[in-house]
Amino acid sequence: MIPARQVARLHNALPFWLSLALIPLAVYGALKGGWAVLLVPVATWWLFTLLDAITGRYEENADPQTPEEALFWYRLITLIWFPLQFALLVWMLWYVPRAPHLGTLEKIALFFGMGVISGTIGINYSHELMHQKNRLERWLADLLLASVLYSHFRTEHLLVHHVYVGTPRDAVTARYNEGFHRFFVRVLPQCLASAFRAERERLARKGRPWWDRRNPFWRYWALQLAFLVLAYALSGWVGVGLFAFQAFVAIWQLELVNYVEHYGLTRRYLGNGRFEHVLPRHSWNASHRASNWLLINLQRHSDHHYKPDRRFPLLQNHDEDEAPQLPFSYPLMTTAAMIPPLWRRVMNPRVRAWRRKYYPDITDWSSWPGMGDAAAR
């Protein structure tokens, strides 16, 4: 176990700052045009897959009792990310539509890359920030989510996903044998509806109607509208279209990761609508070093659901005795998820092995409440 004094050292935090390299890549792509417009997606998906192969796995754990003040250099990257991403987005919205050297396909490709940045990094950092208790970090999370028109993710993630993961009430727990494309179409409306319902029920318990000013949806809608107005002010309807496209790409990136994180995993049903407590075995774990640098340990997802209040540098790696392991890191696994036959070939045997290991007494998964194998082939 890595002691707190070593965790606090700057050189240990710096690898998690690699995401900053994506910003100059995006700017260079816009200025250069041509093949350079693809630098961001190539870097995030393929370069980090290559780096994972080179750097291997990292399974050491920091002391989970490390004090908050020792995490300054780790927290700082999440605190400064929104102004940096915002500046890049504003510049792209102003510059790209006017650039005479960029064709239509190049402009679309650049905003595809912008969506990869705001989804892979921005939403991921908002996820870290929304789990914290101070108002600054939660506001930064809201601003990052508004910049991709997905503000309700904060409510859905905190009040629904963490409570009901691995059960039929959690939309983003991908069902066994459910392909990503079917999953994606399903979760978009379901997550919005479940988030709104969660806030309405929370207010109702306090004797307030859904339209009460304390409903965060008012803030969500206002921030999202502000971003749309900004996009229009910068480049008219073309700006709005490009902004909306990058938001869609970011949401697609988020839901790809959601799909991978819990595919086919369920909690034991205890009867009367109750399920067992969340354990590390209810999320897929990945210990690939480089992609965990890029994703600030998001792949240690088993521990995140087990201890949701842990900051990212303190998330623990769980070995195969405690949690199911992904064969590859998120960049490669999300690519595989886009090809359902390939995904099922890779992951379905692992889900069946997980069932035999942790729930050998359950022989008929087709009757599992809302999470079984009715669609299995």
Automatic annotation (TrEMBL):
Membrane topology, from the record: Multi-pass membrane protein
Nucleotide-binding listed as a keyword: no
Entry keyword set: Cell inner membrane, Cell membrane, Iron, Membrane, Metal-binding, Monooxygenase, Oxidoreductase, Transmembrane, Transmembrane helix
Subcellular location field: Cell inner membrane
TM segment ranges: 12-31, 37-55, 76-96, 108-127, 217-234
A GO molecular-function descriptor: monooxygenase activity
Pfam families according to UniProt: FA_desaturase
Domain of life (superkingdom): Bacteria
Sequence ranges assigned to domain Fatty acid desaturase in this UniProt record: 109-335
InterPro entries, per database record: AlkB/XylM, FA_desaturase_dom
One biological process term in Gene Ontology: lipid metabolic process
A single cellular component GO annotation: plasma membrane
Family listed: Belongs to the fatty acid desaturase type 1 family. AlkB subfamily.
UniProt protein name: Alkane 1-monooxygenase
Origin species: Meinhardsimonia xiamenensis
Lineage of producing organism: Bacteria, Pseudomonadati, Pseudomonadota, Alphaproteobacteria, Rhodobacterales
